[in-house]
Amino acid sequence: MNRNGEVVPGDELPTDPDLPPGPTPDSASTSASTSTPPPAGSRPRGSQRVVAAIAAGGALGGPTRYGLGLAFPTAPHTFPATTFTINVTGSFVLALLLVFILDIWPPTTYVRPFFCVGFLGAYTTFSTWMVDTDRLIAAGAWGPAAANLLISLAAGVAATSLGLSLGRGIAARGRRRYASRAAGAEAQAGAGSGSESGSGTPETIGGRR
Q: Binding of Na(+): at which residues (predicted)?
């Protein structure tokens, strides 16, 4: 990474932050030739728990979106405002939450699969966005169809950028606050040690003690 924390060519990033870094090609070939393959159908217990966390999040995210659709129905042949709001808010929360998970909170295993992959993956909907657009086109509502296609995409990107910027700002503020506290504690410790060392030597004024 460069000084701004941006990824540059040559950086090796993990495919999934919840999984340990994979072996290098050399070590992978060596281990493959010396180790026996795992039994067919076997899966580590940790991955099963991650899948369970994703399923639990999805079981909550899907009904949440369905409930919002029932509570705020959209009239036929009009702009699907409910689906639009769901996708935009989901994009914002996903971006913000990822910054908190990766840069602010302590390392976790199940928070990202539960909230980001499971809940928000089921809460947001690409398929309904496309189905609504197709129905509007079939009904001859070209204006709402174009607005749904273009505005939803632009608003989703903007919401994602806003979530990332807000999360990174909060992370930077937390780092500055931590650095100032550490510097204050170090200065206080230095002042305390200086006073202790000074108190052991009697102070002389005008040749008198």
A: 121, 124
